[in-house]
# Entry
Amino acid sequence: MKEENNEIIVIGAGPAGLAAAVRLAELNKKTKVFEFSEKVGGMSGSMKIWGHIVDFGPHRFFSSDKVVVNFWHRYVKDNFVMVKRQTRIYFRNKFFNYPLKPFNALKNLGIRNSFFSLISYFKSKILPLEEDGSMEIWLSNRFGYKLFKTFFKTYTEKLWGKSCLELDADWAAQRIQKLTLGGALKNALKLNFNKKNNHKTLVDEFAYPNIGNQYFYDELKNFVEDFNKQEIMFNSKVSKILIDKNKVIGIELSNGNKYNCNWLISSMPITSLISGMKDVPQEVISAIKKLRFRNTLLVYLLIEGKDIFPDQWLYIHDPTVLHGRITNFRNWSPDIVNENGTTVICMEFWCFEDDDIWRMQEEDLINLASKEVSKIGLIKKEKILEGKLVKIPKCYPMYERGYKENLNIVIEFLNKIDGLIPIGRYGSFKYNNQDHSILMGIMAAESVAINKSPNLWEINTDSKYQEAGDSSDISNT
# Structure
């Protein structure tokens, strides 16, 4: 065992942790970075299979925050493409635009369903249901129960494995706050009657590194390692957080090695962070046990053919299948595609660690994915050539009703520990996009650089999901 002194330690080399380490390097502050896995990028990274480069699900870059946009551009430079976004909802053998476009949605629903959906919508405006903090009531009051049931219920319950009545309205408020039927109608009419309105937004297109999302994180890694004159510590499991008199003093790895520090920026799961501490109050232990994460199973299928479907990804609302989203990597950048006449798709299944599907063998999951994608008519089974499984634990923080009360107990406890800064999707227990996590890392670094503890808990809690920014901010920066 060895012991080493460091001023600043960063746990995790995903979007938040790497952004923190890079920004600190830009501010001439050295760090030591520990990463549990063997590469950087976390679930926003990429891998190469069958001659194609694929990401771990769809991870486009967009942000209306100039700080994040400028940071991204400093390392990606000109090595990116602007992708014309097409994402749709697949429901009842029809494709609905997403974000929802009223005329497309009403046409696909048919006259009868459209009529009753509009009646349900107007009823929700005149006689809204009493808010109870649940996602179901929040969405029903916003869109009407019939549209909620059609466009949100099935997908949401696949993702979380819970009834929408058991889920907190916070998730919907953060992810789709700006999406309203009235607003969508207004925008549709504006586009129809004002032909000069051709200003693109982040809904219309997004930025993406030419050779996959991993490129951005590898560039960050290179910058950090060059500045610190040492490599990131991969395959390093942090088992203990060392604290003395409410001041963080270091970490201990599973191999027994200790590393001392004055500042600890942690993007490890908040549940693991607490479990690695001594003398945690019982109230905090009880609260942290009630905070859960949802896992993801990614099944990649190699498909014979090129023109599978034109979308970057599809949301699968069909209740007869378990998967909820399909990404088609051929529609992202031409530089990630093997030009041998094949396409790679990624099908996403979500579960808890004690679910049977999480314990299924790779071959069985590939067979399940193959059957489901052919069942809904997207791809003929005989066109599926190969498959590969990737398991990602603790992907999504669970927004179960009552989670805020438990999270606030944990936050209050962590705020009393001097020098400890939890960040990122895992570390702050927030459903961040990569831009939110990058912003958290940047802000944490800038605070540490002036020896000040930041308050990052409010990032991505203002109910403003950043979909409406000007895409020229990205393409012309």
